[in-house]
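Can't paste images in this forum, so I'm doing it all in text. The chain is below; anyone willing to post the predicted structure tokens underneath?
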Amino acid sequence: MGFSMTMPFLPLFIQTLGHFGKWQLNLLSGTAFAVTFLAKAIVSPYWGKLADQYGRKPMCLRASLGMTVTITACGLVPNVTWLIVFRVIQGVFSGYINNANAIVAASVPHEKSGKALGTLATGNVVGTLLGPLLGGVLAGAAGYRSAFLVTGVMMFATFLMTLFCVHETFTPVKKDELVPTKQVFKQLRYPHLIWGLFITTLVIQAASMSVTPIISLLIGELVHHQGNVALVSGIIAALPGLVTLIASPLLGSLSDRVGPERVLIGGLIGAVIIFIPMSFVQNVWQLGILRLLLGISDAALLPAIQALMAFYVPQNAFGRIFSYNQSFQALGSVSGPMLGSVIASLFDYRGVFMMTACLEVFNLVLLLPATRPLRRKAAVSK
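Text version of the structure:
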């Protein structure tokens, strides 16, 4: 919720910090998005190693407290330079959701992983749904800075809830007893699958985030800059969550029955079918309907990846493998906004959707051979 309260309006907030042309605004918006995830990609393996040594709950506490400070500071910046600096520091200390996924994956039976992770995803979806709405109301009523300040308070509440309400049974591991990361990868049953999932996570995140920096600017064009653009942007950004909220547990249960690899492939095919017509939208209503449909695809993708990793990664390496996955996700969050900003500047905002569809096609072609052993195994078992 905190992420989605502020991110759809970041370009509009940057507009208030100086006088920028279209190219400058697109580049600064993409940079402000990307630097957080670049920092996260670099430091995540280090945090993952600490998670395997000391537990995932301490990492959740570290992330929530770090984001309390940095997101609050983003709401107090005097110029765009300081905004980018604090976004870098935010990336260094982030990583809450990744460790929450690892806690749940390690705590439930494998045959229930799809449903459990799908249910956990609804928390993310509810936040994604409500965040832009609340952020739009706050931005319209009290300015863009208020969304950052309220998010800082929410991050501190998350820290307190994690401290007192989240329980993890974990015995610390001495550094010299920790299995080396290279050895962990050698022990994986399907190493090519795990690397395929890493790359798939990167592409999925790049496809998703490529739209985020320009969504409010596109909507401004579609409504001819009339009315409350921030509120409309918040509603459009939240629409996929309406469907994902319902679909995530259902698709999670489906993945337990038919296999998460099939659900993942189906989600990618659906994303391609939806993103192509997005590049031809002429009004907000068309965009809104297509984003509603996109919610079904969103419900299938990342929970299925988490379920596959829970199946084929040993528990004593969850922290590191999930953190590597987070690094690839962060790299997607870096490349996606930058690609989106460049495409929007060279062509137009609608061109970003076509580029996103091409990324999803590439992802689908990559994933099919990586999941072939699992599909063969499922066919033999039948």
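The two ends are 42 Å apart (CA to CA). The chain has 17 helices and no strands.
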